[in-house]
Amino acid sequence: MTNDEELISREEVLAGLPARRANTLLFLIESRTAQIVARSLVEFSLTEQAANERDLAYLEAFTSGHAPPFHPTIQHLERHALQWTPLVPENPKLKAAIAHALGEKYAFTYEVVPNIRAALGLDEKAVQVAYLRLYRRQLLKIFASRLPLTEQLRWTFAAIAHRLESLPPFWLASLVTVALGLPQAFLALPIAVVDIGPLATVAFVIIIGIVNILTMACMAEAIGRSGDFRYGNAFIKQLVSNYLGNAGSFILSIAVGIRVFLIALACYIGLSATMANLTHIPAALWAILLFLAGFYLLSRRSLSFTVAVMILLAAINVSLLLILSLLAFRHLQLDNLLYINLPFHARHPFQPWMLQRVFGVGLMLYFGHVYVGECAKVILPRDPSAGSLIWGSVAGTTFLTVLFCIWVLAVNGAIPPQLLAGQSGTVLEPLAIQIGPVVPVLGIVLVILLLGMAWLRSSSLLLNLAKEWLPAQPRPVLMLHRQQGTLILHPCGDPSCVPRFGLTYLGLEENQPKFRLDIQSSGNIHHVEITVAERWEIKELLEEFPDLRKWNIYLMLSVRSPNQDSVCVQITSPMILVYEGGLKTDVINTTHNSRRVSNLVKRPIAFKCLSNLLSQRRFFLSISPLILVLFLTEWLIFTDAQSFAGILAFAGVLGNTIVGGIFPILLLVSSRQKGELIPGVVFGILNHPVFSVGIYSLFLAILFIHGLFIWENPVARLCALSIALLSLATTFVMKRYGAFASRVVVELLTEQPGGRSLFKIAAGGQPKIAEVRLGYAEGEQHHQASTVEIPSLQSLQYAIFHLPTKREKELRVWTHTSNSSRNDFKNLPALVEIESGDKNMQFDLKLSSGRVLLPLVNDECCLKFRF
């Protein structure tokens, strides 16, 4: 009998052990795939809070044995087989049992699952023989001979999605830029510019398009210089906080909040008015139906889309717009096309009201800046140089500008100005009058997709912003395994200042669960061991650590079902919670442990009910902005004051001048001093100070001009002037606190596969040479370089850096691994000691997500890693 045959005896086979272990492993594979799929979705969020909550939900489901929040399909398992292959054991019998469980649960043919076949070794003789011995039939029996039509369509769409997402990085970046930047302002543009004429509008769109192409390049370069985006899952607000500090993060939240709220309001009005004209159902009733549909989708957490779905929807929208443009060109009238009504042209007087909607809607055509980060998450792992991201952002924005010009020439050239003037909804109603009944058919599809996508995006982003502003006190119930991962908690605030806590389960001591609590605060590390009978609160440590009092920290642990290997614990705290480390697959690879998971799930049911109740309460509070949007929509409809173009214009001036104009410039200037990476493409014009000052001044002037001259409503004027003054003041505050000062970055990177490790040193966005000493058991190695390769990280005992920091005002230390082939990035644990002036600080990078940022107070800095 071979060793392989001895792994599972005949008695175990009769008892069903392979089946139970296979089902457990399949659960593990499905959970891993579900999390990968969730992370690959386009997230309409500024911060990582939504992502942390999602990861925590998957961790909670995984450790307690529940099904994941999102259940993957067989297409997902096939697509991401490379990522879950490490979970599969080498035992042929277990591979055969997993294949059997897979065949029992899903329907698939032999040809459509090549990756699954490779991951499970289904074409290997040993697995086929093992399957025959276990189940007394051929392995080929798990494959269906033919799939139902619905499954064939799913596999076809999966193949198309895979082809789209496998395009060269430049083309993918261009398509994603168009997909995420396709504006709902399309449907308001011909109405907004009716007073100045189509030819003048085209000239205006080209000018503002060139400006936005450059600011998109600024945003892409700033992101391309960020290691957080290159090696992680960063968000725009995290990028802003890293480069511009808390002041920049605050003003960004305000600008995006205003913009998203007004976009949601415009979408409600545009959708309601258009559908009312096309269906003869009152607009007020349509607004209520839209709110109910949005409430349903938000409550089901269904507002996420894959990159491929976004691209396909954008392709449909662009096709519809081009078809409508061609239909409009057939009714082109030269008088309409040549109509010009510019101030001072042909002695026309200057009338400020004419520019109200022109500037605002023109600015709202370009709102993709905030979504460049979503594009970067897809592109940067495939093109680390960021060249494809930068060129793709430019190409996608250029395509949109050309599309805007075609649309204006077609629609405004076909429809007389007097028919467009005074329209409160979208341009589809007058277009239907001019062209004929085909427009309502195409228009319904276009409105549902274009305005519907904008409505879903704005609703999701508004919900996530509201959640960010609301105090949260999550109560997750997790099963922690002994010394197999650490829960990291920290309050909201400046990452370089707030204390951080790490909780690790150590097992039982005198029949009571024992934990190690690691505390990092004020540059010092403390380790405390605690035992928890049933409950424990952090206030028991405040006497020993009085510095924690100023943070108003609350943390309570409640434990159930402890044993030597694991414990079920509920964490009650308003602090941000993340999990560092991994759960070994062999923890749940046995029948005993699988049963224990099931038993543990039953006991904390009261915890789960309370947690769900609190989650629902927070959800209802977070949708309050959408309820306000509904009330405003109804009020505007009943007072006959609704204007789709007018609201978009207001949002464009107040929101897009900040998000699409001022912030890209500030981020670019800061990234050149603080960035960890150097992009492969840098446009020369972006490096000129005249460009930065000019673009910043242009968008700031737009705010001041609207507040002083163009807008007549006193509330609107006050809003524009307040945003302008706040932006100007915030810029000075950011400069005062070092947002544009140079930063030195010391990075420890381990590349996978291969295990190549190296230190990188950069300052002011450029490589910096420094003295480096690597300590091994056999002696020290001395280097004078900006990049130092480490022969063996496992045997490295310490690394010492002597950094000249005459120009640099900040130091960032960062350790991580990179596996680009699997798009998987993890933090490396290390202890760091930093000496700068009379300050001597210690940091545990495991508690800091692998990153530490602190100010420098001296011209020399000594940095020491201990492993």
Q: What do these coordinates show?
A:
The chain has 867 residues and is α+β, with helices and mostly antiparallel strands. The chain is built from 30 helices and 22 strands. The relative contact order is 0.11. 53% of the residues lie in helices and 17% in strands. β10 (742-752) and β11 form a beta hairpin. The strands form four sheets. Strands 10, 11, 12, 15, 17, 18 and 21 form a seven-stranded mixed beta sheet that branches. The chain has a six-stranded antiparallel beta sheet with strand order 14-13-16-22-19-20, with no helix packed on it. The chain folds into four domains: 3-158, no CATH class; 167-469 and 640-683, Up-down Bundle (Amino acid/polyamine transporter I), CATH 1.20.1740.10; 477-576 and 595-620, no CATH class; 742-866, no CATH class.
- Describe the biggest sheet? 7 strands, mixed
Give the low-confidence spans.
1-16, 584-611
Amino-to-carboxy terminus distance: 45 Å
The first-level CATH class name of the largest domain: Mainly Alpha
Short description:
The protein is α+β, with helices and mostly antiparallel strands and 867 residues long. The two termini are 45 Å apart. Mean pLDDT is 85; it is low at 1-16 and 584-611.
Strand and helix layout:
Elements (H helix, E strand, L loop, with lengths): L2 H4 L3 H5 L2 H24 L8 H16 L9 H6 L1 H4 L7 H14 L8 H7 L4 H11 L13 H17 L3 H13 L7 H4 L5 H27 L2 H4 L5 H44 L3 H17 L7 H23 L4 H4 L16 H11 L7 H8 L7 H28 L2 H4 L7 H8 L2 H32 L7 E5 L4 E5 L9 E10 L2 E10 L2 E8 L3 E3 L18 E5 L5 E7 L3 E5 L10 H12 L2 H18 L1 H15 L5 H31 L14 H22 L3 H23 L5 E11 L3 E8 L2 E2 L2 E7 L2 E7 L1 E4 L7 E7 L3 E12 L4 E4 L3 E6 L2 E6 L6 E5 L4 E7 L1
Parallel strand pairs: 10-17
Antiparallel strand pairs: 1-8, 2-3, 2-9, 3-4, 4-5, 6-7, 7-8, 10-11, 11-12, 11-15, 13-14, 13-16, 16-22, 17-18, 17-21, 19-20, 19-22
